[in-house]
Amino acid sequence: MCLGVPGKVIEIDGILAxxxxxxxxxxxxxxxxxxxVAPGDYVLNHxxxxxxxxxxxxIGETLELYESLLADSxxxxxxAADVRGELAAGEIRK
Amino acid sequence: xxxxxxxxxxxxxxDPARGKALAGELERLAREIGREPITLMHVCGxxxxxxxxxxxxASFPPSVDLIMGPGCPVCVTxxxxxxxxxALAKSGVRVATYGDMLKVPGRVLSLADAQSEGAKVDVVxxxxxxxDLARSTDEEVVFFSTGFETTAVATAxxxxxxxxxxxxxxxxxxxxxxxxxEIVAEIPGTRIEGFLGAGHAATITGWGIFEPFAAKxxxxxxxxxxxxxxxxxxxxxxxxxxxxGRGGVANMYPRCxxxxxxxxxxxxxxRVFETAGGEWRxxxxxxxxxxxxxxxxxxxxxxxxxxxxxxxxxxxxxxELAKDCICGAILSGLAGPHDCPMFGKECLPDRPIGACMVxxxxxxxxxxxxxxxxxxxxxxxxxxVAV
Lengths: 94, 387
Hints:
A: 6-stranded antiparallel sheet; globular; B: alpha/beta; Rossmann fold; 3 domains; 4-stranded parallel sheet
């Protein structure tokens, strides 16, 4: 539940950002993140909120953990399930 | 496939050579320290998931015992708090909550029990979804919220939002981890020599909040990330500090954590919440351990909005099995899942007796899935390994 999930910002509309998570787009809120966020940036999302803008030099390392987790997991895998829960926390983009 | 068995060769590191080097460092430091066990504690369910999932304990020196403390917010939510949510649901209020909270037992009933008796209980993945639920109905909706600082911040943002629906209120079971670490550090006879701090909670609070704690108890705190290499690197730093006998704080997760943390988030968190003492399951009374909604936001606080009568639930006694649950000792680091005779027998993920088997961040649930033993080289026959 604390893991969060990183995604790439596609578009910003006020306090809402459309974020791409491996091809799945969700709307995430920007009320909490403490740096200006622009399209192309990566953010770490937790329960539907961006909590941190990921520095560009750290994006590769950050994504790798999640990619190996999601690629290499069963339905019962708790850690992967928490990441999927984080994805479900975003609003489905209408 | 999930790596169930240990064995360093099977661990999937981003950089196997670096993983091996870090494990070698741990061995060297453990030898230099020379005593055993060297007991370390982490306080984060996601850390335990990563440690168990990647079989990291297999690469620790035998003398290093890394135990999970009160790092599962769902697990430490005490019976009366669950009872408040159950009482509200049974009185006809619509209750929305995170999935893990559904099956957590109260004194007699869980929210899932109330749901099967006809109460309106909805599972949501985020507080925003509770907002949407409230917008879709005229009914009163209560969001039964759990989580540490990282999650409480999202709840705070909703409470501060000018367009929050008037029929939405929050029953806060949010917790603040630092005071619980103090309680654990003060348990008489505790052997904990250092703490691994949770990376993403520290993203919000900053690593600086651990400094007074580390100084007061003269124990090191190392903030670490969740990648296998992040965890091993954090442990190497922690063992170095244990060897040198110094307290202090080290940040081994600089890509997410700064000293000050996320000030904008902290401002929202503390504008909405204040700390209050409260019972944590198994840890006893934790001064300042609960996050309570300030008076100013009374209309958003379910405890002030409703007259919640939990005593009406207490007409039957808890089950005999529930009385034998050692979840409390596990949460305070005094026991592990394998110390519980019900683990993997009477107590299973689909029919849990204690909260530690319910939540995906609970030590019992995690160990049951991944077979995470403290030392994979000393298998004990009574431990059931999930396959």
